[in-house]
């Protein structure tokens, strides 16, 4: 080994290094902070499952469970997030079309399966969806915004969260990556490759699509978002495109509120400002979706006061 460089990590406590070898080759070393406890086992389980289905994921070269170390194929630095910055409209539509097509392929290859990965034993049920939304209250509203929620507001948000969680939990479930967005898709040798898939579980078909098209890190033209939703719905033969879009928008509400909880935790508990600039964009998505449907009108003012409003405030955006 010739040297190593630490890389920007994800929202977990894992640490990543790019290792350089004397022969000019490189690899990525992922280090779990609690060696011996096996939390990397889920990553390896899902990686193996996806690779057996010929879905694009990095190769695993070595796993040392005693040290919590996994050595991975180095796919380079061309994250979708960074490529978007240098894309014209045609290239943007092409690469996001490829990302939607990969979701369709993953759905087709996992359809009907009930075993083969730990992901099939996990799901976005009502309990999990509510857990994420309550995490948002703890770490964004109370932790980051330092807001003591009045009882009436807390009750209103709880009712709103239960309404969307019960609705989403009742939807048919498919295999989901769970974090399918511009920081977890790499372009390697001309094709997209998925990373950070260890939290895969069963959930609504709209979940990964919401992660991709209402991404906290990238703003897409609204016309392209609509086109890609229609593309996915057509390829998966959804019986009603209108209803599919409605579930997509509700899923976006839950997913984006959950993301604010993660960002609040990173800022207030871990002191990391890597996600601060993504807060206003995420707040804007929530504001737009809550205003789109009349059935959510009774929750709108509370959401504006304690979710989208604070998120859109420059006070939380960081330097």
Write the layout of secondary structure elements.
Elements: E1 3-7, E2 15-20, E3 26-31, H1 40-52, E4 60-64, E5 69-73, H2 80-84, H3 89-110, H4 126-144, H5 151-169, E6 174-176, E7 185-188, E8 191-194, E9 201-203, H6 206-213, H7 222-235, H8 241-268, H9 279-290, H10 297-312
Antiparallel strand pairs: 1-2, 2-3, 3-5, 4-5, 6-9, 7-8
Describe the structure.
The relative contact order is 0.12. With 319 residues, the chain is of the alpha+beta class. The protein starts with a strand and ends in a 7-residue tail after the last helix. Helices cover 49% and strands 13% of the residues. A five-stranded antiparallel β-sheet has the order 1-2-3-5-4, covered by helices on one side. The chain has a two-stranded antiparallel ribbon with strand order 6-9. Strands 7-8 form a two-stranded antiparallel sheet.
How many structural units, i.e. domains?
2
Most strands sheet: 5 strands, antiparallel
- Radius of gyration, taken over Cα atoms and rounded to an integer in Å: 20 Å
**Helix percentage range:** 40-55%
Indicate the mean pLDDT: 94
Identify the CATH homologous superfamily of the largest domain. Aminoglycoside phosphotransferase (APH), C-terminal lobe
Poorly predicted regions are none
**Structural class, from helix and strand content?**
alpha+beta
Oligomer: single chain
Kindly report how far apart the N and C termini lie: 38 Å
Please tally the helical runs, counting DSSP H or I stretches of 4 or more residues.
10
Number of strands: 9
- Portion of residues in beta strands equals 5-15%
Shape: globular
